[in-house]
Structure formats: structure tokens, C-alpha cells
């Protein structure tokens, strides 16, 4: 399957990927800058991925799509209530839908706390793009953006 007009996305072997292991598109090792897109909701993430694609083209950056999958306390991390395969297919579908032409990697991570998980995964002073719904009350995504900014990351908050 072609993604955009310049990149082939590897889809075979996805079922053998372990949680937390990145899946890279061919030829992505040379990108200098990295933009992190964090999965929130499918619609909001679609807007964030589209914005990331635009920014990545301007700066010749690589997109690192982080999908933290929170596992509730009653479940062991090795057996989440939502299968990792489902999360992988949803993430791939979002990337395909957004027609991103930048080099993109997807990383699905099983965790107990999304904020702590992201903090461990992001390098200091990372550029992060988060999508959310437009609403008048403080959304979870807005709190997450504020938390990441307080830790020194540059955050672009995209409204769907």
C-alpha cells in the first residue's frame, strides 16, 4: 500500500510486533528532527497527524506517532482489555487516512498512567502535537498539554 506518493508502509509482520516497539517506514533513519504526535481520540488525532505532516514537510522532520494504551488496574500489562493488534490497525488506519508523506513511525506502549508513560518516552525539550475537541471545559488533552509544557516540552495543541 502506498502512503502519499513517496513512501511504502510496512504492513506485513505487524502481528509479530511487541508492545512498545516502533514500526518504522523504510528510509526513515536519516531524518534530523522529530515531531511526536500523541494519540488522544481518533478524530482529534487525525487533525494532529495532518498538522504534523505539514510541519514535518516544512522542517524535513520525522513523525513519531505515540499510542499510549492505558491498561486499567484490574488487568496485567501483558493482557490489556483492548488487543494490541486492534490498536496497531487503528494507528495504521489513521496514518493512511491522513496521507502523511513524512517518514513516520508508530509506537504502541502499554502503561498504567499515560502522563508518566509519555514523560519516560519523550526526550527533553521534544516537539509534541496533541489534538482535541473544541469545548469550553478543560479537557483531558488540555491537561496533558499543560503537563508536558511544564516539563519543558514544546506543545502544539490542535483543535479538530
Number of domains: 1
Radius of gyration: 15 Å
**CATH superfamily membership, which one?**
HUPs
Q: List the helices and strands in order.
A: EEEEHEHEHEHE
CATH architecture group name: 3-Layer(aba) Sandwich
- Total helices: the number is 4
Q: For the largest beta sheet, what order do the strands appear in spatially?
A: 3-6-5-4-7-8
Based on helices, strands and strand pairing, what is the structural class?
alpha/beta
Beta-strand segment tally = 8
The CATH class name reads Alpha Beta
- The average pLDDT score comes to 80
Span between N and C termini? 27 Å
DSSP helix fraction: 25-40%
Q: Can you characterise this structure?
A:
The chain has 160 residues and is of the alpha/beta class. Helix content is 32%, strand content 25%. It has a single domain, classed as Rossmann fold (3-Layer(aba) Sandwich), CATH 3.40.50. The strands form 2 sheets. The chain has a 6-stranded mixed β-sheet with strand order 3-6-5-4-7-8, with helices on both faces. Strand 5, helix 2 and strand 6 form a beta-alpha-beta unit.
Write the SSE topology.
Blueprint: E1 2-3, E2 7-8, E3 23-24, E4 34-38, H1 42-59, E5 62-70, H2 84-98, E6 104-111, H3 114-121, E7 127-132, H4 140-150, E8 154-159
Parallel strand pairs: 4-5, 4-7, 5-6, 7-8
Antiparallel strand pairs: 1-2, 3-6
Concise overview:
Helix 1 (42-59) crosses helix 2.
Q: What structural keywords apply?
A:
globular; alpha/beta; single chain; 32% helix; 25% strand; 160 residues; two-stranded antiparallel ribbon; six-stranded mixed sheet; disordered N terminus; Rossmann fold
Amino acid at each position: 500500500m502506498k502512503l502519499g506518493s513517496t513512501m511504502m508502509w510496512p504492513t506485513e509482520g505487524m502481528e509479530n510486533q511487541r508492545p512498545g516497539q516502533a514500526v518504522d517506514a523504510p528510509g526513515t533513519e536519516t531524518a534530523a528532527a522529530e515531531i511526536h504526535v500523541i494519540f488522544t481520540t481518533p478524530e482529534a488525532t487525525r487533525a494532529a497527524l495532518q498538522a504534523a505532516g505539514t510541519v514535518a514537510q516544512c522542517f524535513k522532520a520525522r513523525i513519531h506517532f505515540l499510542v499510549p494504551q492505558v491498561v486499567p488496574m484490574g488487568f496485567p500489562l501483558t493482557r490489556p482489555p483492548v488487543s494490541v493488534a486492534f490498536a496497531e490497525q487503528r494507528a495504521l488506519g489513521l496514518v493512511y487516512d491522513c496521507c502523511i508523506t513524512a517518514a513516520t513511525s508508530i509506537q504502541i506502549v502499554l502503561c498504567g498512567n499515560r502522563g508518566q508513560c509519555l514523560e519516560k518516552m519523550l526526550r527533553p525539550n521534544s516537539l509534541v502535537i496533541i489534538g482535541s475537541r473544541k469545548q469550553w471545559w478543560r479537557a483531558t488533552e488540555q491537561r496533558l498539554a499543560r503537563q508536558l509544557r511544564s516539563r519543558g516540552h514544546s506543545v502544539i495543541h490542535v483543535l479538530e
